[in-house]
Amino acid sequence: MERLACNRSGNASGGGSPIYALTVMRLSGSVQDQVLKYFDAYVKAGRPDVADPVLLTQTYE
Asked: Residue 3 pairs with which residues in a beta bridge?
C-alpha cells in the first residue's frame, strides 16, 4: 500500500490536499473472491498471453 496526496487545482472549497492509499493486488487463480476469479479468467480467456490482471483500489481518508 502506498499513501499519496491528491493535488486539486482550481478547487477553492478544499482546505488542503486529501490523502489516499493506493493498493495494488495482482489477481491470479488463487484469489478467494468469486467475482475476482471470474474477472481473472475472463481477461485471460480473451488474451492468453497477457500477464495476470491487477486490481487498483484508492481509499480516501
From this structure: 21
Would you say the pTM of this structure is higher than 0.70?
no
Residues forming a β-bridge with 57: 23
Per-residue pLDDT of the chain (61 residues; tens, 9 = 90+): 556 566 655 454 555 667 888 888 888 877 788 988 888 888 888 887 888 888 888 888 7
Instruction: Annotate 14-24 with b (16+ C-beta within 10 A) or e (fewer).
Output: eeeeeeeeeee
Kindly report the length of the chain: 61
Q: Is 24 helix (H, G, I), strand (E, B) or coil?
A: strand
* Helix residue ranges per DSSP H, the chain: 34-46
User: Cα(13)–Cα(16) distance, rounded to whole angstroms?
Assistant: 9
